[in-house]
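Project standup — Tuesday

K.O.: blocked on the structure for the chain from last sprint. Re-posting the sequence here as requested.
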Amino acid sequence: MLHKGNSLIATDLDRYLSANNPIGANSDFDLINAWLQHCASNSKNTYDSYLKEVKRLCIFCESIGTHFTQITALEINEYLAILKEPPPHWLKDNKSTVSRSTQILYKPLAINSVEYAQTVLKNFYGYLQDAGVISINPVNLSVKIKADTPYDQAAKALSFAAWDYLSVWLKHESEKANHKNRSKAIRDRWLMHLLYHSGARRGSIVDLTMNAFKIQDKGQYRVWTFEFMQKGNKPHEVIATDELIDEWTYYRKAIGLPSFPSGDEGHIPLVTAVSKNPSSILKSTNSISTRGINYVISECLELAANDCEDYFISEELKNTTCHTFRHTNATHRLRLGADLVSTQNHLGHRSINTTMIYLRDTQEHQVENTQILNQNLKKRSKDF
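H.V.: unblocked you, prediction finished:
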């Protein structure tokens, strides 16, 4: 719910509207709250999302010295342009923690999110117009924002933007959290990076120890591998990426271990269990359970989504499950250039047809592949 006195909600809570308005709003607070109750009271996510959009608009109005009921279409255009390309003073310092109170943008919004912001504000000002507070809806006169491609809410994998945001958020939380919560934040960071980089299923990492990581010779290469059990209790191993090893060593040092093992570590859980005492998590000798994994992911993703200024990334995170990390691993591998066979082996698929599901042959990829083909054909013709 809204609270009077919150300067982010309205620039002037003492500025009273017409006492004759049909919704009975006597202040900015009452007016915004009446709109939220009218159009978003049935969904907490929608309520929070709509409120976030109005908060940002109020900050903009305050910065240009106008009231939100007096904003013009040109000023709406200026505001939407700021969302797409914010000036430095609208952006948070990349080294600062992610705050749950600020509404300053963490980074420029995606075009889909700017389009969404315009849609929400159109609804807001339409409500004000119906209530007799304003005579013209300024958003109707603003330049129409149109995303190039619609947001696919049914997509099973996180977009690159969503994963990048989540990864940065997890790192901020682990490095900036207070002493009591830092152990939990470090464990949570490790869990989600492990799921993403390995592509392992939730049940595969339960009861694993530090011995799951081994250094092995693969032909002329000496690499770190991650070993676990697949479905049907079948042993499986993946070659660990540099980023996974970086996260592993960060976690190891946080729990008082050297960067790399020097002996048997079969007694040390790979991911420690959930505990009622956050400060003791990293000292636990118990391994996390499947239920614990569900709890950690649900809690972290909700917090990360609430912190996110980008509506579409926030929605992706809210719809993320444990298995989403496996889908994301597969999709990102293929998008970044890994071939089908290596990805099939990495995921442990019996049939390559299963792996091919992750190849989304979009129009953009068709064009890119055609351009590569054209370049190769031209090069080939010159050789003859």
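K.O.: great, moving the ticket to review. The domain at 154-363 is CATH 1.10.443.10 (hpI Integrase; Chain A). DSSP finds 13 helices and three strands in the chain.
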